[in-house]
Amino acid sequence: MLLKNARYLNQAIKKWVHANIWILGDRIVYVGEKLPDKLEGCEIVDCNGMTLVPGYIEPHAHPFQLYNPLSFARYAAQFGTTTLINDNMVLALQLEKKKAFSFLKEMRNIPSTMYWWCRFDAQTEIQNEETTFSHGNIKSWLEHDAVLQGGELTGWPKLLDGDDLMLHWMQEAKRMRKQIEGHFPGASEKTLAKLMLLGADCDHEAINGQEIMNRLMQGYTVSLRYSSIRPDLPQLLDEMHELGIDHYESFIFTTDGSSSSFSDQGIIDQMIRIALEKGVPTIDAYNMGTINVAKYYNIQHLHGNIATGRVANINFLENESNPTPVSVLAKGKWIRKDGENTPFEDNMPWEEYGFEPLEMNWELTSHDMQFSMPFGIKMESAVITKPYSLAIDISGDELSREHDECFFMLIDRKGKWRVNTVIKGFAKELDGLASSYSNTGDIILIGKSKKDMMNAFNHMKEIGGGIVISEQGNIVTEIPLKLKGIMSNKRVEDLIEEERTLLAYLRERGYRFADPIYTLLFFSSTHLPYIRVTQRGMYDVMNKTVLFPTMMR
User: Fold this and answer.
1) Of 217, 289, 345, 440, which one is least surrounded by beta carbons within 10 A?
2) pTM, whole model, 2 decimals?
3) How far is CA 83 from CA 54, 157, 333, 359, 430, in A?
4) What pLDDT score was predicted for residue 75?
5) Phi and psi dihedrals of 150, rounded to 5?
């Protein structure tokens, strides 16, 4: 392919330059004034009037937020984000290592470029953690050439308490010249300094200008976030500028695994647009979504710039003030051309890699629906839960619609154990919800009516996993998750509509927060305060203790 008369972003000199760009297969093989002597069989694209920039890079993707890695890669590429650096949590928790690595190999064959992390902890209290996150498993993941970093470090309190094994894994990552991604919400300057000394390189949890400055002062690369539960980027840029921060080499962008419906305006292109609107110089705004990420991960010889030898990931813009591309090349293939998407095929043999529909050969019974916990969990935000003392009668089959308390159950997907409690603040008029989507893949039940909770559960089983709502004995909305009960096999565009329908229904029933998908995901996540419902039982995060253990069935 020959891109003639191209005006492109040259980051070596931070200028817009005119050149001809030669592409062979998936690589750029020349950038300069010359034209090829032979053009037989060559696709010639006249780029006159267009502006070319490198494909955008998402450095912190969670590609299992109802969508799957393939569907999200396809969707993101249409908006110009052609490289994703992905969380491996679901692969580590749900698949045996051999199948997980076979899946990583298969993902090399798609037009988008897929890199991965290596998690050091489960982000919750799980049974048999020492087996899932064994030294052998972690070492194998770190040694994999598609893995660029260790983390994110949701278990950093264990590290500071003296977890030598986690420190060893971090040292191994550093020895392999791989980065360590932090997860340090609310961390003090002292804590940030300690974690930097132990090997952390980057953090995405700054929520104001001062927290950004604290991270810069300790030498961190700062990942600015714009996500469905933390749409912080506009405020972060304003407060950075107020503090006089006007150099951008230490900044990158992330959408941090946003739900599908939040991404309908774009991925990294949307973040570049916000940066431009907030007065970030044009080339710096593009660099935060391209070359800054590539340099941070030491992959600038492959990604992040338009130069000889690089992977041919190129976005064609109408002009530099609109970062959403008209055309997109990914590995030298058209993903979008002249405003029309040409998505790559979905012929992924999902079941071959262990992503078959969810099968549960056990029944939920009325005996399971016994609730006698002396306290429940109260939602402070979409993802923060605190303990509270129960003051209502929970012995009946239904709860009153006069308050916002519902029955809550976490039950093992294999049917071995359960935790029964009450949740306050999720909804006021929800009859019954069942979800196989959760942090660990275990089953969540929420509702006012035990009958409808069981009905939703039974239908969720029938469809092979998903999020299901029952009202007065009838299924009223559902999101099927055919891939192990965790992910949809549909396009992101279709998933956006299903998510919006679910959110609208839950809002009518009293859900008042931003993102119910993240609420379901984080009920078990012990990297957030204060009380979590985990495989080990009701867990006090601050004191690191199990308050009430799981009940065996």
Assistant:
1) 345
2) 0.96
3) 10, 31, 14, 33, 40
4) 97
5) -95, 145
Please count the other Cβ atoms lying within 10 Å of the Cβ belonging to residue 363. Answer: 11
pLDDT digits (tens, 9 = 90+) for 328-340: 999 999 999 999 9
Residue that the structure tokens 């939703």 belong to: 456
Q: Which phi and psi (to 5°) does residue 453 adopt? A: -60, -45
Cα dihedral sign, 64-66-72-76 = negative
- Write out pLDDT tens, residues 493-520: 999 999 999 999 999 999 999 899 999 9
Non-local (6+) Cβ contacts of 178 within 8 A are: 142, 147, 148, 149, 150
Domains of the chain and CATH, by start: 50-351 (3.20.20.140), 366-552 (no CATH)
* Max Cα distance, the chain (Å): 84
For the chain, give the number of residues.
553
Give the CA count within 13 Å in the CB-facing half-sphere of 250: 18
Query: Which residues of the chain fall below pLDDT 50?
Result: none
Q: What is the token pair recorded at 233?
A: 């980027």
Position 259, amino acid: S
Rounded to 5 degrees, what angle do the CA atoms 544, 549, 553 make?
Answer: 150
DSSP 31-63: EES---S--TT--EEE-TT-EEEEPEEEEEE-T
Structure tokens at 277: 């609107």
